[in-house]
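> call design_seq(struct)
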């Protein structure tokens, strides 16, 4: 039997909690691997945590300044010389652009590594798909992502997200929330078909569980309307009714909604609150404004109107919540358009998946302290077009 097929079959038939053991066995038997480790990216995208049985005893490695981090950041295999001619191949574990972690395989010599590298990279990709499916039935891989304990509100928010990045021929998406282990009400959501990409960036009011409950209600109301095939303006109206029916105007949620036509870049947009959009086009950053409408749930039976927008191939669209835009320096200066435009230009050569974390690092420097007063959300969309 072809050894790649053997590896794929082993992963397909393994129990959800035994994926690492299964891939370890087949790589030892078929590829003479000396050791195999799986590292998962933590919620803050700062470290890669080894998958092991609780309580975890292995040390995490940097997601930026380590051999594993090099493969994770570049999204390409990185081969490291280790000892006595042995090498360690670090392989990105990624599913449709969503970067989950790195598979590290130590092999006993460099002579046959190049010939095996392509197969090993494919095995890492298959492993990623199996991890995504396995997470429905086991907590092992979710636990491995935790450098610290999540607050309950953060637990609810991370479970609500579609992922942190994704890609298609027409676009690349990356997003990040801070503080990763204690977020409240900020959120993002996306869904794609063969012809359309729908994108929501939300900023809920309040703190802790109350903020998370509000966001959960609004996002699920939007998804319910979207999955019924309802146009984007009516999605906003139905979610508005759901939020108002529960909170009677005491709590509400801001949202910026886009419905892109993948063939043309034309989008229908509903701007219902505070999230902001900046566009990098031809080396120039500019803020894109829309006619502001009421947040979801502020008043009863609000009508929403979709506006027009067009993305051109090469555009980079950066969405931010007010926890980014309004963050003040120790001297009281808001981050605002100027500092944000500088950060977008400084990160223009990074892939979309890397941009949010890089901008949030810049924001921490501007803030002058590591812990923010409010949620901070950055979402980057690179538009390639068809």
């Amino acid at each position: 039997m072809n050894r790649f097929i053997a590896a794929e079959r082993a992963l397909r038939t393994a129990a959800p909690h035994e994926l690492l053991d299964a891939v370890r066995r087949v790589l030892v038997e078929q590829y003479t691997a000396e050791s195999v480790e799986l590292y998962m990216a933590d919620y803050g995208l700062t470290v890669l945590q080894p998958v092991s049985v609780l309580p975890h005893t292995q040390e995490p490695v940097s997601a930026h300044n380590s051999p594993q981090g090099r493969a994770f950041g570049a999204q390409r295999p990185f081969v490291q010389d280790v000892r006595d001619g042995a090498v360690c191949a670090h392989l990105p574990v990624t599913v449709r652009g969503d970067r989950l972690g790195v598979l590290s395989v130590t092999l006993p010599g460099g002579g046959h590594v190049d010939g095996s590298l392509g197969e090993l990279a494919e095995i890492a990709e298959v492993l990623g798909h199996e991890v995504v499916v396995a997470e429905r039935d086991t907590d092992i891989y979710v636990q491995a992502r935790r450098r610290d304990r999540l607050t309950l509100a953060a637990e609810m928010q991370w479970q609500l997200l579609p992922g942190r990045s994704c890609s298609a021929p027409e676009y690349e998406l990356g997003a990040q929330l801070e503080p990763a282990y204690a977020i409240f009400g900020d959120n993002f959501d996306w869904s794609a078909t063969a012809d359309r990409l729908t994108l929501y960036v939300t900023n809920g009011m309040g703190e802790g569980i109350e903020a998370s409950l509000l966001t959960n209600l609004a996002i699920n109301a939007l998804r319910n309307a979207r999955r019924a095939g309802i146009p984007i303006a009516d999605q906003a109206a139905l979610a508005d009714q759901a939020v108002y029916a529960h909170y009677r105007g005491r709590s509400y949620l801001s949202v910026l909604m886009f419905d892109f036509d993948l063939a043309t870049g034309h989008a229908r947009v509903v701007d219902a609150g505070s999230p902001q959009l900046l566009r990098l086009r031809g080396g120039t950053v500019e803020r894109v404004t829309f006619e502001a409408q009421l947040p979801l749930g502020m008043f009863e039976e609000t009508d929403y109107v979709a506006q027009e927008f067009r993305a051109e191939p090469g555009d980079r669209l950066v969405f931010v919540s007010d926890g980014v835009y309004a963050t003040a320096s120790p001297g009281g200066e808001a981050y605002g358009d100027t500092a944000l435009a500088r950060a977008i230009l400084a990160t223009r050569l990074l892939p979309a998946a890397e941009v949010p974390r890089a901008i949030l690092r810049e924001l921490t420097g501007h803030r002058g302290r590591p812990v923010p007063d409010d949620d901070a959300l950055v979402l980057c969309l690179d538009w390639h077009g068809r």
